[in-house]
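Quick question, first post here. What does this chain look like in 3D?
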Amino acid sequence: MNFDPSDPSLRRRQPRPQLARRDVLRGGLWLTLGLGAAPWLASCSNNNTAQSGAAPYALARPDKPVTLPFKDSNPPIENGLDPETGGAFKILNYDQYMAPGVMKDFGDQHGVQVQVTPYSNYDEMLAKIRAPGESFDLVFPGPSVLSKMVYTELLQPLNHSYIPHFTNIWPEYQDPWYDRQARYTVPYTIYGTGVLYRADRVTSVPEVGYDLLWDEQYAGKVYLLDDMQEAIGMSLLRNNISTDINTSDPDLVHQATDSLKQLIDLVKIKTDVSAYSEVPEGTATIHQCWSGDPIAGQYYLPKGETPDVLGYWRPDDPSQRVIGSDNIAIPKSSTKPVLAHAMINDLLDNAIGLRNFGWNGYQPPLTKLSAHYLIDQGYIPANLMNAVVLPKDFDSGLTFYEVSPTTEALWRTSWSEFKAGA
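> Answer (accepted):
Ran it through. Tokens below.
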């Protein structure tokens, strides 16, 4: 496939507010399925785990993978059904997270109107998917909320006979630790976390690039991700406090938070999730961000500037790299589940996946779309290759997991203390 920069699905020059989706991407999830934790936890368990602060089921970890249950009350669809046609095909997704051209082509092919109901975080997503009388055909949960949605029957199992392109996925994601056998999800995008900076202003990058965030010479133009776990987790790593970025140890979390608090006076720290535009446009010089942001950021540069004014740092050591993923799933409420499988299959097609990547900057874990392929096709400048997530990152990389209510409360309280000062 040749890179066609005239394709409107590949280049975008308007602000992308959908990236605000990650402000609570991995936090606050025990309080989102309803008004509080206890009601929905009680529906998952007959014991006292909701009151004791423990989860009512096994929490998935790479070394302790989980196979999510099938229930007689929630079976997968049968084989060999024809796709539904007519009316609306309803997607519950982060705003602007899928290429408009991809959605339009799908709607034209199947005779439906593709509609997106946006949300900014998982709190909103779970409220909308549970609204009485509401139905959606696709939704995009991450590992940190997936088990909750399965145990409360918000998702239906997949029928893989409708997803032949599943074999295009990285092997690591064909049987993921958070959803063995890929019973409920397929991967949508993968990403890493690092530091985006203006290379024409930053003449020297320290060995630990996180140190740029504490550099006084950039005061007033330094930003953290407005994300509880990303910010505190980064501080744990930067200060050699712990490599357990899901720690439940109060002393470690407090140490990491105290270091973040130093940034308030030191560099007049700001928090948001707009690195993709603020660094290219010059509002920010240093910005903690996800790896999709520098890839998309090249299209936000002022006229006449080239991508070599951008730099992106992530740790060289894969065991120090923070990585994550978003997934695609089908709500139990779907009125077009066959068609939903068809769109999932399309998004795992190499050509469509590449087109969609050109829109949102976030990499689909499709084997063909290797780092070298993406660079050869003109999507990623060589100086931003560090933004590409590699399969080896998942062998030893660090991931934010679903945690217990007690651990989440610890992190949330610490983050609130930092934000109150910032």
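The chain has a mean pLDDT of 86.
The first helix runs from residue 37 to 44.
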